[in-house]
């Protein structure tokens, strides 16, 4: 008759030699069953390839025939088991487990569960039968948002990570509403855990690892310290880590502050994007109006609405410019009845809307949609890099403010158009430098200044200078003109010339180049030092300078060979000749 084991018994998980101290186990090679044992995590787990462990029953003290107090390899029951699937929780050395016997055969033990044992801090101590004693709960009140308390054992054993202490901060604010799964780092204090909290009106889930402080918190957010439920931190979702993070979605990503119905009786689609499309469509309409306005005023249109590298084309859609192409992406619809049909609609970029279809991006784009404000702040740099167009469309005002230098560089054209939508406005376009110069230059082409009404140029404290390499012409629609070209000034008019002055004087001919040398201040000036071919200074020698307009200016150098300043409005080429002494 086989020995029987009725009911269930408790036992300790042990190592090879039967010791329940993880630090005192030594591998002994293959046993009689042929299993090759393994020691893991500084001998904290002793198991074979089948996930079996050894145990020692509470009544098992004497050494067996092999000189060990350990049992045979014992199977561990799991909640699910299958080929390449299931759950796996192996009890570690020193843990107490519950054992049952297959068909009552004591030689066929199976571990069916694990048990906490010992007396935890603030727990009720063991007393003789019939005696009453209160637990010492003073340790519970020592917990804070960032420090634990009452999680150790007053006697040997293991206490649970979560236990019902009571209501109030002095009782961990925990009425036994927390439960979950926690693992333990081998030979360390780190852990991984999944916590469910069913506290009244404060439900939450936490998925956490102490590795780099990485965790996902859902629902009621609060500070926790093991069993202690601390102060309120917020409500919603928090994904955090002390290391780096990445979010990847191969088919697109939607980030939206527009709420959708998500109750037990009604739930809207997860990919709901009509609000985003509505905002984009409004911006599209405004942009199209302003682009047409720019075209009508001979300015630069909006490439995102007309096409950048090719008309009415974009990288996203060969048949539409960037913004219309993005609008089509947000109009995507897929079948809501069958998955295969939905994938087909997505591949075909379907935009047909009806009761049998739900919103879906037609291309893998990232949409960030804010119902109210959207804020993005960086302590250092913010960079926007695109392969095609960068568009900022706003139905109201836009401001660009910088405390340093504001630079705009373009590989092609820069177009600025203002006042097209609001008539009779006094704002127009303003370009003001509170300090320093304002410089407008065209290095390879012309500058054109045009106005429907007056063109007003004033200098409050200095002068207005006009200079040209060939000629300057002032002309009116009536036919009168003044032309300054070379060394000549030509005055023409179909009517009369009226000269009004207190004194009139006509002297000999001169030139602008010669007269500029008498001006107190000009943009360009240069002094030259004359030297002979031998390198010796040409002191007190006659010279002749030929300016760019042909004016010849003669003079005598000083004792250092200097010619004196030559002044001009622009940089020009000139020639200097040292004259013979008898010239």
TrEMBL record:
Domain (Putative type VI secretion system Rhs element associated Vgr) ranges: 184-294
Gene3D superfamilies registered for this protein in UniProt: Gp5 N-terminal domain (2.40.50.230)
InterPro entries found in the cross-reference section: Gp5/Vgr_OB, T6SS_Rhs_Vgr_dom, Vgr_OB-fold_dom_sf, VgrG2_DUF2345
Domain Gp5/Type VI secretion system Vgr protein OB-fold: 49-116
Residue ranges annotated for the DUF2345 domain, each copy included: 355-509
Name of the protein in its database record: VgrG protein
Organism: Sulfuriferula nivalis
